[in-house]
Amino acid sequence: MLPEHDNRRTYRPNSQEIQRTARAIVQVLAEHSFHCCLFGSTAAAMYGAENRNPRHERQDVDVIVLVPPASPAAAEITVEEIKFLISTNSSSDFYLTPSQDPIATHTILHYVLTPFHPHPEDPQHHACKVDLLLPGTIGIPKHIPTDVIHYEDYFPDIPLLPFGALILLKVRAWNERHVDTKLRKSVMEKKIKTDEEDLRELLDLAVNHYMVRLRKIEMWTGWEWVDQHRDIVRKFAKKFPGTRRDWEEIGIVLKSEWSMAPSESSSRASRVRR
Asked: What pLDDT digit, counting tens, does each position of 39-70 carry?
């Protein structure tokens, strides 16, 4: 049972606390022989995006746990089992709580930010929520090789999902907000607006700083994974025509194949056959 005034629901971790949480989850996963990478808004911030201010917007740490393909036992593990391993690790400051959804079966993983006040019932207790996911869920590529993981100079100990994959997952999330019936309309509209601001900033970074080319992402995701985002990107570019050139710059073809010149269309077809 959560305390009547649960600080976890209202407290917004600052950027240093979010970074501390990220390092802690990376370390405890490594202790159990799991590689991982961050994605979502925390990864975007570490890449240099400034749109998200943790003081105004509550921020969780989103982590993809990479299951070793050569390990049959690890391949069968579930997210809930990984959470349990983390929360029972004697050297970790993580704990689990039930979901607030009464019919949900998953648990919520938290990292203690106040070691002198570790108990959730303590009014001075603060924690940061950590979301763990596995490859192949919510549109994440089914296989993420460890050798493509990115490290920023300012955060050399925090693994990040490659930028190209990050921005495609972001535009997918933006699209799914439009059909999310669980959120109130006002909340949904606010989240959609935030996603749109995030995406425009990420696109600018992709083109002008990281020189993202999605053909490099295709080498490990397969072209099908990249291509399935094309209609979503077209929808975004229709709403924000000023982003069209940036999307095409990083490698998303927005023209319909029916409107392409014969040479363009045949080139695209040969690529698909490969």
From this structure: 999 999 999 998 765 545 657 999 999 987 65
Q: With helix as H, strand as E and coil as C, how does the chain read?
A: CCCCCCHHHHCCCCHHHHHHHHHHHHHHHHHCCCEEEEEHHHHHHHHCCCCCCCCCCCCCEEEEEECCCCCHHHHCCCHHHHHHHHHCCCCCCEEEEECCCCCCCCEEEEEECCCCCCCCCCCCCCEEEEEEECCCCCCCCCCCCHHHCEEECCEEEEEECCHHHHHHHHHHHHHHHCCCCCCCHHHHHHHHHHHHHHHHHHHHHHHHCCCCCHHHHHHHHCHHHHHCCHHHHHHHHHHCHHHHHHHHHHCCCCCCHHHCCHHHHHHHHHHHHC
* Angstrom distance (rounded) from CA 44 to CA 109: 21
Question: pLDDT per residue over 77-113, tens digit each?
Answer: 899 999 999 999 867 799 999 988 878 889 999 999 9
pLDDT confidence band for 259 (50 / 70 / 90): very low
Is the CA virtual torsion 80, 81, 86, 88 positive or negative? Answer: positive
Integer Cα distance of 156 and 71 in angstroms: 27
In Å, how far are 42, 44, 167, 202, 251 from 49, measured between CA atoms? 9, 5, 12, 7, 21
Question: How high is the pLDDT of residue 34?
Answer: 93
Quick check: 71 pLDDT over 90? no
Q: How far apart are CA 244 and CA 240, in angstroms?
A: 7
Does the predicted model carry a pTM greater than 0.70?
yes
- The letter for the amino acid at 56 is H
